[in-house]
Amino acid sequence: MQSEPQAFDRVLSSMCTEPHPVARDAAERFLATNPGDPGTYPSVSALEEEAIAMLGSIAGLEEPTGYIASGGTEANIQAVRIARDRAESQRPNVVMPESAHFSFQKAADILGVELRIVPTDDNFRADLEAVRASVDEATALVIGVAGTTEYGRVDPIPELGEIARSVGAMLHVDAAWGGFVLPFTDYEWNFEHAPVDTMAIDPHKMGQAAVPAGGLLARSDDLLNELAVDTPYLESTSQATLTGTRSGAGVASAVAAMEELWPEGYKRQYVRSQNNAKWLADALEKRGYDVVDPTLPLVAADVPRSTFDALRAKGWRISRTATGELRIVCMPHVTREMLASFIGDLDRLEVRASVPVASDD
Ligand SMILES: *Cc1c(COP(=O)(O)O)cnc(C)c1O
Asked: At which of 218, 235, 260 does a domain end?
């Protein structure tokens, strides 16, 4: 095989990043292990318990239970599955803001629950009145996002918890991306702040672990046990994961990254990323673009389609929000120099265009 993976020096659109060196090393060492078979691969199973303990301390959960999943998608599907299986209604529904990740569409499809999608407010957070109007006796789960994929917004989690409890529903928090930056902010997002039942929190995003390393956390064993099935041909007696054979590389690299970086390393990274996001937002604003205020290290700005396409043609890996804004995620590999070079390219394009390019939407 001749192929090489892409370099990260022009990647501005990814929610993943280069693994930390210790995470890369751990991933390589544990490549040939399978935590899905703990009777055969005991050392990686022990590491998985450490991973869950550390995720618990990051997310304010004293006696954490959960597992290292393939990613936020699996964690979200499993959270919906727990809620559906505990629901008394024959036609359970799940209520979430329109800002929630598309993985919940997959969950609803697979699990046969009704998805009720409510609007967000002017600040891109779940509209609480709309959530209140949507829940009923058949609501099994209310979902809040702590760090939305498009604008990095944090839903009002304690209020969503109150609404969920008022109809006997569970509360799931999707912190797949935000979980490793939110501990250094004033947001109320975790198990200590609200009656959170389950959470998605991914080491393979801001946690700097190798892919695949997602995290599912549950408030108590009985919630996780909803997922357990018997495993006749394995020494262990039951399995709660969606996948069977799993990556021990993901588990080991998650532990290595968290041991190395929690909390000080992650805190430094958050400060660096947030400063970069503010710098970029400021640079875009000065050039006359409408920018969505980066409350977490994620910047969205209204850049004309033609400019966007020209930047892509220059090799910048950038993406757009559903409404067409340029979206840049200030992940750990994104440096100030990269952003300055990106703005430099943008300026050269604008000079060439000589007259301001009108937005084509
Ligand atoms: C990335 C992301 C997901 C999906 O996680 P994968 O690891 O890609 O499966 C879910 N929710 C949020 C908020 C995300 O940012």
From this structure: 260
